[in-house]
Write a structure and sequence with these properties.
Elements lengths: L3 H11 L7 H11 L14 H16 L6 E5 L3 H13 L13 H14 L4 E5 L1
Parallel strand pairs: 1-2
Helix pairs in contact: 1-3, 2-3
Length: about 130
């Protein structure tokens, strides 16, 4: 297991971001340290970056076998779709739950949760 600082640096490099603001860094560090976190910030303050980097940071810190699941709770379906598309493009398997999801999509999400277990889940509210 590596250091949190190194994992975050690797995650930034892997996603082509150069730096984090202090509130973003603290938001990502908290669940990596086993702590709960709540981030409230205005639009365009970089909340999305925190949960885009979270899966990368978990992988770099614990290895890809850690099977962490990151839940992001977002009130806008269009934002969820955009974020999921961006994460999938970057090679992170992501899904969203919305009223437009098919029963098959919901079943797939629940199967992944059951396969990996609830202990690896990290939740981010947006």
């Amino acid at each position: 297991m590596g250091s949190i600082a190194k994992a975050m640096k690797d995650a930034l490099e892997a996603t082509c971001y150069s730096e984090l603001r202090d509130d973003q860094r603290k938001t990502i560090e908290a669940p990596l340290s086993g702590k709960d976190v709540f981030m409230s910030a205005p639009t365009r303050a970089g909340k999305s970056l925190t949960f885009e980097l979270a899966p990368y940071t978990f992988d770099h810190l614990f290895g890809e076998a850690c099977n962490a699941i990151v839940f992001v709770i977002v009130p806008l379906i269009s934002l969820m779709k955009d974020q999921v598309s961006n994460l999938n493009y970057r090679g992170i398997r992501a899904s969203y739950v919305g009223d437009d999801c098919s029963e098959e999509q919901l079943e797939d999400i629940l199967n992944r949760i059951n396969r990996f277990g609830w202990s690896g889940i990290r939740t981010f509210c947006h």
